[in-house]
User: Which sequence fits this backbone?
């Protein structure tokens, strides 16, 4: 893009902070320094258990264990008293649905994580370094790089526009919005993983790898945390399916 084009005000602070120039980009020394300081444009793969083990892990939640015990007692009492234990059976079915939902949610998050990783492996991007336009692998991208994007490009990292011309970006992957978004000085942030529909823009990279928005989302969805249990995430499903299961079994 023309060097005389106006620089958006929001980009000025990032240019200063990351020791970058809108026309010359980073120097070789600055690339090394920024990579050491802000990290690489890579997402570290998580260690994953086999699928069967991941599924069984869902049953270690204390509340799920208590519900299974209650359901078992209800079933035994029902048979002892000579009637079909619909409530106990309904609870078992509801627990199976809840744990299944939790398992599928994590599985889909893992798949999305792997897809993003593979998509980023072979992407070539255009950056300005040492005053020259270069084509590099997305993995070589660092915070402070001056990135040029145009129609058909996939945005390789989070960035703030320096300037743009009729830039439309498809953000449906992030927002679910089907219409392309017009990017300009009023809406200058572009997100890694989105796609340029038309126009062109020059931007300074502000986050890479796990620090970019998509990376943080995928990591948080994939990370196993004690407070994110299958029961907690599927409580409403469990309540609804318990009542429905009992009702259907009694019909």
Assistant:
């Amino acid at each position: 893009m023309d060097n005389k084009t106006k620089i958006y005000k929001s980009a000025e602070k990032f240019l200063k902070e990351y020791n970058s120039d809108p026309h010359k980009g980073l120097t070789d020394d600055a690339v090394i320094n920024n990579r050491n300081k802000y990290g690489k444009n890579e997402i570290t793969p998580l260690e994953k258990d086999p699928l069967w083990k991941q599924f069984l892990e869902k049953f270690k939640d204390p509340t799920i264990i208590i519900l299974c015990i209650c359901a078992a007692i209800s079933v035994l009492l029902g048979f002892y008293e000579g009637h079909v234990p619909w409530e106990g059976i309904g609870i078992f079915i509801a627990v199976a649905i809840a744990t299944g939902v939790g398992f599928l949610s994590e599985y889909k998050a893992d798949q999305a994580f792997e897809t993003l990783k593979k998509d980023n492996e072979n992407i070539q991007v255009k950056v300005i370094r040492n005053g020259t336009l270069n084509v590099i692998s997305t993995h070589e991208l660092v915070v402070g790089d001056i990135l040029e994007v145009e129609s058909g490009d996939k945005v390789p990292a989070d960035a703030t526009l320096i300037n743009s011309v009729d830039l439309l970006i498809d953000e449906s992957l992030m927002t679910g919005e089907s219409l392309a978004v017009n990017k300009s000085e009023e809406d200058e942030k572009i997100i890694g993983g989105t796609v340029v529909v038309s126009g062109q823009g020059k931007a300074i990279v502000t986050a890479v790898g796990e620090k970019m928005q998509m990376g943080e989302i995928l990591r948080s969805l994939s990370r196993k945390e004690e407070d994110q249990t299958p029961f907690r995430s599927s409580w409403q499903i469990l309540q609804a399916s318990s009542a429905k299961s009992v009702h259907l079994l009694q019909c």
